[in-house]
Specification:
Blueprint lengths: L12 H6 L6 H4 L4 H10 L10 H24 L4
Length: 80
């Protein structure tokens, strides 16, 4: 089934997730998207404080969780 969702230009991952159809697992996954949103927005500005190893590792783990859930969603819908 082709979803016809229009997404705004935004880095707010919670806002974007809320626009997904309710049947998508990522919409209900307990993932700290505001933490990822922080890296998506703050890193674009010169006043950004570089993350330490622990912060970078935590953000990477969150991103991997999101990718895993989305990949499962796509696989369940016939995507790759």
């Amino acid at each position: 089934m082709l979803e016809q969702t229009v997404f705004p230009h935004s880095h707010d991952l919670e806002q974007l997730r809320s626009l997904l159809p309710s049947g998508w697992a990522v919409r209900h996954a307990e993932i700290d998207l505001p933490a990822l949103t922080r890296w998506a927005t703050e890193s674009r500005y010169p006043t950004f404080d570089e993350p330490n190893r622990e912060e970078a590792g935590a953000a990477l783990e969150l991103a991997r969780q999101v990718v895993g859930v989305v990949r499962d969603d796509f696989g369940g819908r016939g995507g790759e």
